[in-house]
């Protein structure tokens, strides 16, 4: 095993097989699960689950049999009013005599009804209106239209019902950013600790600073990927347990080229951020100070989210194209654009080239800063020293 | 072929001349003492030799050529402020450091266990380094330095925070390595240890070499013109003696120009003085150090 891989394995196992990492790894999904359950509970508790009523002057509701225990029929508005006052029902709807022609429905309630009251009633009315129609007509009307948006050359399309396909890559990137921010703390802490206890001076007499930094950055990327795999695994597990969401998730079909591009850009982004963090870790004397400094460096990666409306609205517009060629904004912008438009191949290649170049420069810089910074105990490096090659 | 050859090396930190035109050689198999007051440039020089820092001018060759990664595997370094992973087990930390020196994992493990036993640290091998006392950490640091059996060892203040027993153990270990042909560069303020261990020394001040050569030569060079005499009874007037100082019943006689110690001895024998001690007054390294450094500081 080469020295580079010794560093990778050492750094990886040193952080991953620790209670602190396992706690962080599981705490986020646990927190989100608890938050979700609390949210559902709050909604359920705040929601009036009582029945609703209706008064039908049009005769529509008598067309076919079939009713719901949650929707009560009243013969007159006076009866319905009495039930409402006695809080036996949340609200009631009045279908006027000319409902078929005017489609007017009057809604009477003392306060806002619970979520789903309107849709329950609408579903019932729709079923009555469609009574006697052929089943395929009923199904078509119930499902509504499927609007398909297709790119000019037909190479990419998505339907309105599959919005999740568009948002999955963006969501994935967001989770990815979370992973970066949490794992970067380990790198920062390791760097400052090693500097503080002088272990760096010993290590640097065994291998070159750039090899050392490359090993550390690779390890931290591997830790991040581990974290992502566990999180996505837990998300999939949650979905399969949830059951209902399973069908819609199963239909997600993201083109393989887009997945490949996403993986490559995410990795490049991860290396870029890790190199910055490693460089900062070599300069600062305390991990907390380093985290304060690296915070602003992470912002450019999420800038495209701030301009999401403009980018999604005009994926090949000037703003989107410019952001594709800026190293820090390129990863998210590329993914946003590929979700909606066909990006010219030269733009993808140029963007990747810029990102790879940026990665190489940052890793070199991190190595240089590491060499310079590790001997500056209790003192900050100057800008000139950061780029000084002599060490 | 010397183990280390430093030729006209300069290193500046801004306007500070940390190392100023330094040249010296360390021969293979010798114990070389690197001395100097705090801030003299010793640690910077060590870092230059180890390629942690690059010289601004001059050239350094180590083990027969410019330093590269393969050569780093043949060097052991123990910094002044110790460097060990605090939050992992002692055994794991040592194996990792040996792996970085190109030792295969199984071999590194076997050597680690062996050295931990030799240094009475076997019981602590699963303990985290931060749980060990300073003395035990110091021993562990020594193991990390020699585990890969280097040809050249550079130790910066190896005896700091060691009790007399552990000091003796480290000293014995250094002499063992010396006998096996290992070259050792030792930077320390404990000059009595240098006198016991080193073959040659270099004294630095303000980044410059102010004294360099064999320990015996230097001591003779600084021996001056005096003798120590201890007698039964009172010492009378001796011709050719300029001044007399008495310390613990022994007298230090400062001789005039042209008066040899033999002449003084002949005079004492002729006078039937009962002698208990008669020796050339050779200064200790401490005395030479103070004299040279104070002289250098007053002249600069």
Describe the structure.
The complex is a heterodimer of chains A (391) and B (300). By secondary structure, chain A is an alpha/beta fold. Chain A has 17 helices and 6 strands. Chain A has helices spanning 3-16, 19-46, 77-85, 99-102, 117-129, 135-143, 163-196, 199-203, 209-242, 246-250, 256-283, 287-306, 308-313, 318-324, 330-340, 345-373, 383-386; strands at 52-56, 71-74, 91-95, 105-109, 148-150, 157-159. Chain A has a 4-stranded mixed sheet, sandwiched between helices. In chain A, strands 5-6 form a two-stranded antiparallel sheet. In chain A, helix 7 (163-196) crosses helix 9 (209-242), helix 9 (209-242) crosses helix 16 and helix 12 packs parallel to helix 15 (330-340). With 300 residues, chain B is of the alpha/beta class. Chain B contains 10 helices and 13 strands. In chain B, the strands form 3 sheets. Chain B has a 6-stranded mixed sheet with strand order 5-6-7-3-8-9, with helices on both faces. Chain B has a 4-stranded antiparallel sheet with strand order 11-12-10-13, with helices on one face. In chain B, a hairpin with a 2-residue loop joins strand 1 and strand 2. Chain B is globular, with a radius of gyration of 23 Å. The mean pLDDT of chain B is 87. The chains are: A alpha/beta (391), B alpha/beta (300). Chain A binds chain B through residues 1, 3, 6-7, 10, 14, 193, 197-208, 371, 375, 390-391, and chain B through 47, 50-54, 56, 69, 72-73, 75, 77, 79, 81-88, 96-97, 99-102, 105, 144.
């Amino acid at each position: 095993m080469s020295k580079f891989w010794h560093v990778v394995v050492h750094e990886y196992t040193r952080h991953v097989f620790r209670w602190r990492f396992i706690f962080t790894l599981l705490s986020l999904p646990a927190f989100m699960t608890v938050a979700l359950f609390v949210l559902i509970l709050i909604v359920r508790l705040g929601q009036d689950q009582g029945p609703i009523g209706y008064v039908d002057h049009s005769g529509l509701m008598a067309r076919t049999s079939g009713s719901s225990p949650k929707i009560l029929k009243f013969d007159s508005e006076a009866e319905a009013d009495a039930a409402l006052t006695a809080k036996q029902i949340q609200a009631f709807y009045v279908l006027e005599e000319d409902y078929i022609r005017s489609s007017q429905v009057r809604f009477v309630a003392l306060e806002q009804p619970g979520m789903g009251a309107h849709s329950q009633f609408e579903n019932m009315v729709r079923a009555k209106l469609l009574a006697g129609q052929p089943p395929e007509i009923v199904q078509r009307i119930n499902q509504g239209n499927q609007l398909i948006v297709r790119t000019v050359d037909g190479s990419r399309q998505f339907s309105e019902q599959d919005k999740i396909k568009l948002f999955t890559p963006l969501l994935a990137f967001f989770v990815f950013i979370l992973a970066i921010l949490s794992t970067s703390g380990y790198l920062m802490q390791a760097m400052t600790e090693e500097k503080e206890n002088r272990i760096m001076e010993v290590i640097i007499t065994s291998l070159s600073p750039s090899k050392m930094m490359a090993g550390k950055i690779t390890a931290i990327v591997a830790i991040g990927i581990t974290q992502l795999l566990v999180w996505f695994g837990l998300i999939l597990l949650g979905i399969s347990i949830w059951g209902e969401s399973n069908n819609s998730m199963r239909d997600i079909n993201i083109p393989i080229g887009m997945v490949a591009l996403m993986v490559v850009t995410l990795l490049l982004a991860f290396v870029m951020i890790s190199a910055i963090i490693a460089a900062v870790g070599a300069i600062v004397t305390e991990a907390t100070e380093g985290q304060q400094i690296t915070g602003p460096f992470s912002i450019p990666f999420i800038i495209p989210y701030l301009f999401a409306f403009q980018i999604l609205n005009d994926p090949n517009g000037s703003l989107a194209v410019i952001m594709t060629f800026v190293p820090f904004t390129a990863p998210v912008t590329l993914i946003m654009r590929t979700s909606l438009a066909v990006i010219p191949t030269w733009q993808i290649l140029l963007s990747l080239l810029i990102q790879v170049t940026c990665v190489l420069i940052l890793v070199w810089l991190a190595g240089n800063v590491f060499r310079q910074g590790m001997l500056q105990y209790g003192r900050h490096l100057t800008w000139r020293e950061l780029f000084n090659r002599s060490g | 072929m010397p183990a280390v050859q430093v030729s006209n090396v300069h290193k500046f930190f801004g306007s500070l001349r940390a190392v100023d035109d330094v040249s010296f050689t360390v021969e293979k198999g010798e114990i070389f003492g690197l001395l100097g007051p705090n801030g003299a440039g010793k640690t910077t020089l060590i870092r230059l030799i180890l390629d942690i820092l690059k010289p601004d001018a001059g050239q350094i060759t180590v083990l027969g050529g410019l330093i590269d990664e393969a050569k780093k595997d043949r060097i052991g370094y123990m910094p002044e402020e110790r460097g060990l992973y605090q939050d992992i087990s002692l055994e794991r930390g040592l194996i990792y450091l040996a792996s970085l020196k190109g030792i295969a994992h199984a071999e590194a493990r076997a050597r680690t266990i062996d050295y931990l036993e030799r240094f009475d640290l076997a019981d602590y091998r699963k303990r985290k380094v931060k749980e060990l006392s300073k003395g035990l950490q110091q021993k562990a640091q020594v193991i990390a330095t020699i585990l890969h059996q280097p040809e050249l060892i550079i130790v910066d203040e190896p005896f700091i925070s060691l009790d007399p027993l552990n000091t003796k153990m480290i000293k014995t270990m250094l002499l063992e390595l010396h006998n096996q042909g290992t070259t050792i560069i030792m930077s320390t303020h404990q000059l009595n240890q240098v006198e016991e261990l080193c073959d040659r020394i270099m004294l630095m001040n303000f980044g410059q070499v102010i004294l360099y050569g064999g320990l015996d030569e230097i001591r003779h060079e600084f021996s001056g013109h005096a003798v120590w005499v201890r007698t039964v009874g009172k010492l009378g007037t001796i011709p050719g003696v300029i001044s007399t100082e008495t310390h613990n019943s022994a007298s230090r006689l400062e001789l005039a120009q042209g008066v040899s110690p033999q002449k003084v001895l002949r005079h004492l024998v002729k006078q039937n003085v009962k002698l208990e001690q008669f020796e050339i007054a050779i200064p200790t390294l401490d005395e030479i150090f103070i004299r040279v450094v104070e002289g250098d500081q007053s002249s600069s």
